[in-house]
Amino acid sequence: MQHPFTETMLATKFGHFNIRVYADTQGKETVLLSTEKLDPSIPVCVRIHSECMTGDTFGSLHCDCGEQLDASLQKIKEGENGVLIYLRQEGRGIGLFEKIKTYQLQKKGYDTYEANVLLGHEPDERTYEKAKMALEDLGITRIRLLTNNPSKVNDMMNLGIEVVERIPLVMPANTYNERYFISKRDKFHHFFQETIGAKVR
Ligand SMILES: [Zn+2]
């Protein structure tokens, strides 16, 4: 069953994409940017990006979301067989209001994992059913996933999407996001390679 969506061509600084927006009564529309040609018979390059207004829109240096978003669109465009799925689950699923509270706690020295827990949240509340739904609508069952996050790989596999390859998406660390990277690596077990090894050990 296809879910209700609307779509058109979108010209961006990375090139042309097909933009598909799913209807959502809560205003949490899932958005897909896919390459003009899409062949689901071979594994498709996929980025599942959860919304981060501060990073994606304002260029915040406290995380690497905006940079990951740009790098993903670039890679997807280059590969000519890919999809970016933009999920509206801000702040690892706790929302912008609560995320800013976690930033206050991070200023006091707590890391992103501890801050979430102190506010009564799970360390990561994101879910990926909407990504699975969108992939299924496109007839995609096998993907090459752009991520450093092993639990995202597992979650997609558990939802029945075969992740045939994980493509790393490692951004350089800076003064503001160094602790964020360390907690991603040590608490969320993200894969980081030597690219940030110089700053984050
Ligand atoms: Zn972010």
TrEMBL record:
Belongs to the GTP cyclohydrolase II family. Binds 1 zinc ion per subunit. The gene is ribA. This is GTP cyclohydrolase-2. It catalyses: GTP + 4 H2O = 2,5-diamino-6-hydroxy-4-(5-phosphoribosylamino)-pyrimidine + formate + 2 phosphate + 3 H(+). Its cofactor is Zn(2+). It comes from the Bacteria. It comes from Candidatus Uhrbacteria bacterium GW2011_GWF2_41_16. CDD domains: GTP_cyclohydro2. Coiled coil: none annotated. Residues 7-168 form the GTP cyclohydrolase II domain. HAMAP family: RibA. The keyword Iron does not apply. InterPro entries: GTP_cyclohydro_II, RibA, RibA-like_sf. GO terms for biological process: riboflavin biosynthetic process. GTP binds at R47, I48, H49, S50, E51, Q68, E90, G91, R92, T112, T147, K152. The active site is at D124, R126.
